[in-house]
Amino acid sequence: MKVLVDRGKCQGYGNCVIAEPRVFDLDDDGFVQLLVDEPPEDLRAQVGHAVRDCPARALNLGD
Protein backbone atom coordinates (compact mmCIF):
# COMPACT_ATOMS: atom_id res chain seq x y z
CA MET A 1 0.00 0.00 0.00
CA LYS A 2 1.28 3.43 -0.95
CA VAL A 3 -0.15 6.75 0.20
CA LEU A 4 -0.36 9.48 -2.43
CA VAL A 5 -0.69 13.12 -1.38
CA ASP A 6 -1.68 16.12 -3.47
CA ARG A 7 -0.28 18.92 -1.31
CA GLY A 8 -1.84 21.46 -3.67
CA LYS A 9 -5.28 20.29 -2.53
CA CYS A 10 -4.49 20.06 1.20
CA GLN A 11 -6.32 22.65 3.29
CA GLY A 12 -4.74 21.66 6.62
CA TYR A 13 -7.86 20.25 8.30
CA GLY A 14 -5.77 17.60 10.05
CA ASN A 15 -8.37 14.82 9.83
CA CYS A 16 -5.65 12.52 8.52
CA VAL A 17 -3.50 13.14 11.60
CA ILE A 18 -6.44 12.36 13.87
CA ALA A 19 -7.17 9.16 11.92
CA GLU A 20 -3.57 7.88 11.87
CA PRO A 21 -0.83 9.96 13.53
CA ARG A 22 1.81 7.29 12.82
CA VAL A 23 1.48 8.00 9.08
CA PHE A 24 0.37 11.64 8.81
CA ASP A 25 1.45 14.90 10.38
CA LEU A 26 1.11 18.58 9.55
CA ASP A 27 4.21 20.55 8.57
CA ASP A 28 5.14 23.99 9.90
CA ASP A 29 2.79 25.59 7.35
CA GLY A 30 -0.12 23.38 8.48
CA PHE A 31 -0.24 21.08 5.45
CA VAL A 32 -0.14 17.29 5.33
CA GLN A 33 3.24 15.63 5.66
CA LEU A 34 3.73 11.90 5.24
CA LEU A 35 5.73 10.23 7.97
CA VAL A 36 5.52 6.88 6.15
CA ASP A 37 4.69 6.79 2.43
CA GLU A 38 4.32 3.00 2.39
CA PRO A 39 2.67 2.09 5.72
CA PRO A 40 2.43 -1.53 6.81
CA GLU A 41 -0.63 -3.51 5.83
CA ASP A 42 -1.89 -3.63 9.43
CA LEU A 43 -2.58 0.13 9.18
CA ARG A 44 -4.72 -0.19 6.03
CA ALA A 45 -8.04 0.39 7.82
CA GLN A 46 -6.82 3.52 9.62
CA VAL A 47 -5.13 4.95 6.52
CA GLY A 48 -8.22 4.18 4.45
CA HIS A 49 -10.29 6.10 6.99
CA ALA A 50 -7.90 9.05 6.71
CA VAL A 51 -8.21 9.03 2.92
CA ARG A 52 -12.02 8.88 3.01
CA ASP A 53 -12.24 11.54 5.75
CA CYS A 54 -10.14 14.16 3.92
CA PRO A 55 -12.55 16.98 3.05
CA ALA A 56 -10.12 18.37 0.44
CA ARG A 57 -9.64 14.97 -1.24
CA ALA A 58 -5.90 15.44 -1.03
CA LEU A 59 -5.13 11.78 -0.19
CA ASN A 60 -5.31 8.58 -2.23
CA LEU A 61 -4.19 5.00 -1.86
CA GLY A 62 -2.12 3.14 -4.43
CA ASP A 63 -0.95 -0.45 -4.34
TrEMBL record:
The keyword Translocase appears for this protein: no
Keywords: 3Fe-4S, Electron transport, Iron, Iron-sulfur, Metal-binding, Transport
SUPFAM superfamilies: 4Fe-4S ferredoxins (SSF54862)
Cofactor requirement: [3Fe-4S] cluster
Protein name: Ferredoxin
